[in-house]
Amino acid sequence: MYAVLAAAALAGYVVLPVGALRDGVYQGVALLGTVAVLAGVFLRRPLRRAPWWWIAAGMAVWQTGDAIVFRDTWIRHVEPFPSVADAFYVVSYLVLAVGFTLLLRGRKAGRDREGLLDSATFTISLGLLSWVFLVRPTFESSAGGLLERLVTMAYPLGDVLLAGLLVRLLTMRGARAAAFWLLAAAVAALLVADATFQVIALNGLPGERLIGTAWLCGYLLLGAAALHPSMRRLSEPVLESAPVFTRLRMATLTVASLVAPGVLAAQLLAGGRIDGWAVVLSSAALFLLVVARMAGLLNRIQEQAGELAAMARTDALTGL
Fold first, then answer.
1. I need a surface site. Which of 165, 197, 241, 249 has the fewest CB within 10 A?
2. Residue 100 · residue 55 · CB < 8 Å
3. Is residue 203 within 8 Å of residue 19, measured between CB atoms?
4. In sequence order, which residues have a C-beta less than 8 Å from that of residue 193 and are 6 or more positions away?
């Protein structure tokens, strides 16, 4: 029922022309996603409800900012920046981050040093890309005062925060139920929408309808994740198991480690400005993380080798 209603509401937003009616439909579709999250908490009764309350609160705070923008645009006919809406938007990043952090803590039953190092590697690489292509250009192109520049920078920094939490969720051990993938897809949709909006705003390109659709997909997917029966498993601690270092993870870690030199090479070839300190600091951090990751793998291999040697010298039946 929810899927049909969400698809119909989203289609209505897509086909409507630009105007107050379409923006009003946008508000309604976004609210549908928040209501679905709240309904999912009551219907599925997860072991830990606090993460979902925070996620719903973050969505509500963001939509409050949307409502303020709607009022300014269609009732007051002004477009102030920064405005009260920006305060709500920035706060929503923090509220959502609290929700996802609580969800991650609930899933972690023990130490996951490898997953934490991997997520930190990916996050630093994403942070460097965000700085080079979004944060610094946005800060430098802003013609306003310091407050306007800081508010403008807060959005990509908030995206890096959510992206880091998404990567941590994906690298954490545990079952991958339907609600897990719906939640991951929701965060990814919101991040893509945010990043696209910032690129469009920076370069003066069109694409408002596409961005709005991506944002709504994120809201609706969050609602779908909360309503799915498997959402209860997202709040349950993950049983301890030996980490598996797959070829896919090895490949993605390799790509993440090469982001810093790749950015430097691209800037040298383009002949433009070089973000020297950003590349230096991120390269150093990535190098230390990779060394720590390899040290952990070597220690685990040595422990396993010792256990195998002890088993080879010991009779399993008598213990001699």
1. 241
2. yes
3. no
4. 211, 212, 214, 215, 217, 218
Instruction: Report the 10 Å Cβ neighbour count for 225.
Output: 27
**Distance separating alpha carbons of residues 276 and 264, to the nearest angstrom:** 8
User: Which one, of 32, 8, 4, lies nearest residue 223 by Cα?
Assistant: 32
27 vs 25: CA distance, rounded Å: 5
Question: Which residue positions in the chain have pLDDT lower than 50?
Answer: none
Query: Which pLDDT does position 251 carry in this prediction?
Result: 81
Q: What is the pTM of this model?
A: 0.84
Terminus-to-terminus CA distance in the chain, angstroms? 64
Question: Which residue's structure tokens are 């220690």?
Answer: 299
Distances 239 to 108, 173, 174, 175, 302 between C-alpha atoms, Å? 8, 9, 7, 10, 23
pLDDT at 277: 85
- Nearest partner of 92 among 124, 56, 51, judged by Cα: 56
* Structure token digits, residue 195: 């990043």
What amino acid occupies position 163? A
